[in-house]
Specification:
By secondary structure, the chain is an alpha/beta fold. It has a single domain, classed as 3-Layer(aba) Sandwich (D-Maltodextrin-Binding Protein, domain 2), CATH 3.40.190. It contains 15 helices and 12 strands. Strands 1, 2, 3, 4, 5 and 11 form a 6-stranded mixed β-sheet that branches. Strand 7, helix 8 and strand 8 form a beta-alpha-beta unit. Helix 3 runs antiparallel to helix 12. The N and C termini lie far apart (91 Å). 43% of the residues are buried. The chain binds (2S)-2-hydroxy-2-methyl-3-oxobutanoic acid.
């Protein structure tokens, strides 16, 4: 019988215990602008765990939420240079690089989610993704939800378009956003998301607009008093990859990453829809006063200002035709 001590003495125990964990073959960074508590981050974290598992540890993605690596504008540059491999970005902000990517933000274009997802998973999304591909980026097939946007204000309830007259409203960096709020008579100020809370606090802007889920996780209710239910546009995040980093992954690993991210995107959409449908109670209890509006009045104001004609011209007949194919005539 071999004695236990003899057996152990023969093994290089020290070497085993001190060998460093093998670094993953592909160590990638994923940056985004939202707090870790938003469903975009909770669902992405689940996808990333499944990707690590399914790739046998070869793909390890580290998350940098909350604009830890910089504003959306900065992070888009980092994505393009390859300093960051993955980034989720609103199509409207992406339009500073890929103009047609803001097309889903045309005011009051989508009646409801029943129009949003068939369009974004269908011809409209395919049109935008093809343009994204021309700019050195890859967009996963499934977009992640931000949601229908609502206007908040610190100074007065916004009930009708006339209440926006001269109103200093923060908008994200995107020509479509600026154009739309100018068309409504407001005075839009372009500010990245990471500076929005403090801009509202210091009254650089008196209001802003975002979906309920963002207003909640970013605690914008602390610096705003009124929330007008306008549903004035639908906004989503493209899950983007730097093209060189994406192509560096062998095909089987790309398939795993895309499969798991897209699966989580579908779950994230359901989470956000639930939040946006149920958060009004808790936001009211935090002091936000809800204001009902007549969206048709805002839409009519946009039309009267020539907003639809202007953007039809800017996007061009082909892209505009794809949008109208999904939502009907916007004229
Ligand atoms: O910047 C915003 O307002 C946000 C969080 O909604 C976007 O990412 C577009």
């Amino acid at each position: 019988m071999i004695r236990r001590r003899t057996l152990l003495a023969g093994l290089p125990l020290v070497a085993i215990a001190t060998r460093p964990a093998r670094a993953a073959e592909f160590s990638y960074k994923f940056a985004n602008n939202l707090p870790a508590t938003h469903p975009l981050n909770t669902r992405a974290a689940e996808a990333i765990a499944r990707i690590k598992e399914a790739s046998g540890g070869r793909v390890d993605i580290q998350v940098f939420p909350n604009n830890q690596l910089g504003s959306d504008t900065d992070t888009l540059s980092q994505l393009r240079s390859g300093a960051v491999e993955f980034f989720t970005l609103s199509g409207l902000i992406l339009s500073t690089l890929v103009p047609v990517a803001s097309i889903n933000g045309v005011g009051f274009a989508f009646k409801d989610y029943g129009q949003v997802w068939p369009a974004m998973d269908g011809a409209l999304g395919a049109h935008v993704r093809a343009e994204i591909a021309k700019r050195g980026l890859y967009a996963m097939a499934k977009q992640w939800d931000n949601g229908y946007r609502q206007i908040t204000s610190a100074t007065k309830p916004v009930k009708a378009p006339a209440d926006l007259d001269g109103f200093k409203i923060r908008v994200p960096p995107s020509p479509l956003w600026t154009s739309m709020f100018k068309a409504l008579g407001a005075a839009p100020v372009t500010i990245n998301f990471n500076e929005t809370y403090s801009a509202l606090q210091t009254r650089i802007a008196d209001g802003q607009e975002n979906p309920l889920a963002v207003i909640d996780v970013a605690k914008l209710y602390e610096v705003q008093k009124y929330l007008s239910v306008t549903n004035h546009m639908w906004d989503g995040f493209w899950f983007l990859a730097n093209r060189r980093a994406w192509d560096a992954l062998p095909e089987n690993l790309r398939a795993i990453v895309e499969r798991e991210l897209n699966a989580s995107a579908l779950q994230q959409r359901a989470d956000v829809a639930t939040l946006n449908a149920t958060l009004s109670g808790s936001l009211k209890s935090r002091g936000l006063e809800f204001v009902e509006t007549d969206p048709n009045a805002f839409r009519a104001a946009l039309k009267k200002a020539g907003f639809y004609a202007e953007w039809r011209e800017k996007f061009g007949p082909e892209a505009w035709g794809v949008l109208e194919g999904a939502v009907g005539s916007l004229a």
